[in-house]
From TrEMBL:
Protein name as catalogued: histidine kinase
All residue ranges annotated as the Histidine kinase domain in the record: 41-267
Similarity comment: In the N-terminal section; belongs to the phytochrome family.
Length: 270
């Protein structure tokens, strides 16, 4: 703080308080930044050896393991599953850090909304079939201005969660709606709202906003039981906000959830 207050001047003392607060905030920001950098360096250093351990375990698991007892095979399977989880965690941390730092350039172009939903559904079809969950897409004819790969990743994350947190023999629906706003004396804004709806376990109302923050899970044992990392929704939020959109959820505890996000419509595309 370079400001020297006149002690007999009350206004100056108020201003000094403001500087102290600013300095406190910037200290906290610096600490946050250092923490993020530390996590990212550690994750980066972990990725190469972890990927190599994971590939070796995969090769071992697919060979005929006559010499291994059933207990040995089970241990190999656990090692494989847990390494896969670590690889996922490290990749998620790095993804989030890259997007957050603004180093990632969104490659935006015209994308058909239905094609984005169908591509994400195709990616998740095997997981859905395994859990006996039906994935349905309601086709629409709109075009959005978006980075194709990142939006497919966002939809994929939301579908993956919907499957993970739903019972067997239920359906997950994907749809999109169009909203038009006409601000006075300004060009009309149209945006497309995507929705991923499930009939799963739902989210308690006091957690509906915090789940978009890093490492926030309604049930902390989910990362072990369901292989989650608590980073998926934080990544989705960064991607959507990088498109100037918003993401939120509505849910009825024990009845199901709907996740929404908005993207700008490509004007004059129809
Ligand atoms: P995770 O890797 O745990 O899925 P996410 O950031 O994607 O991390 O989600 C954070 C938490 O939000 C989840 O652990 C879960 O508690 C809750 N959640 C997300 N999607 C759903 C859903 N469709 N139904 C119920 N809970 C959900």
């Amino acid at each position: 703080i370079t400001y020297i207050p006149h002690l007999d001047d009350t206004d100056s003392q108020i201003v000094l308080g403001f500087f102290a607060l600013t300095s406190d905030i910037s200290d906290r920001k610096a600490i946050e930044r250092m923490k993020d950098e530390f996590i990212s360096v550690v994750s980066h250093e972990l990725r190469t050896p972890l990927t190599s351990i994971h590939s070796s375990l995969k090769i071992l698991a697919t060979r005929k393991l006559g010499s291994l007892s059933s207990k040995g095979q089970r241990m190999l399977q656990i090692a494989d599953e847990q390494t896969e989880r670590l690889v996922r965690l490290v990749n998620n941390v790095l993804d989030l850090q890259r997007i957050q730092s603004g180093k990632v350039k969104m490659n935006k172009k015209a994308c058909n909304a239905t094609d984005l939903m169908i591509e994400a559904v195709q990616t998740m079809q095997a997981m859905a079939q395994e859990q006996k969950i039906k994935l349905l897409v309601e086709p629409v004819s709109w075009t959005v201005w978006a980075d194709h790969d990142y939006i497919v990743q966002t939809l994929t994350n939301l579908i993956s969660n919907a499957i993970k947190f739903s019972p067997c023999n239920t359906t997950v629906w994907l749809s999109a709606t169009r909203e038009q706003q006409n601000p006075p004396q300004q060009p009309t804004i149209t945006q497309i709202t995507f929705a991923v709806k499930d009939r799963g376990q739902g989210i308690p109302s006091d957690r509906i906003e915090t789940i978009f923050e890093r490492f926030q899970q309604v049930d902390s044992s989910d990362s072990r039981k369901k292989g989650g990392t608590g980073l998926g929704l934080a990544i989705c939020r960064q991607i959507v906000e990088g498109h100037g959109g918003q993401i939120w959820a509505e849910s009825c505890f024990k009845e199901g959830s709907t996740f929404y996000f908005t993207l700008p419509e490509l004007i004059n595309s129809e």
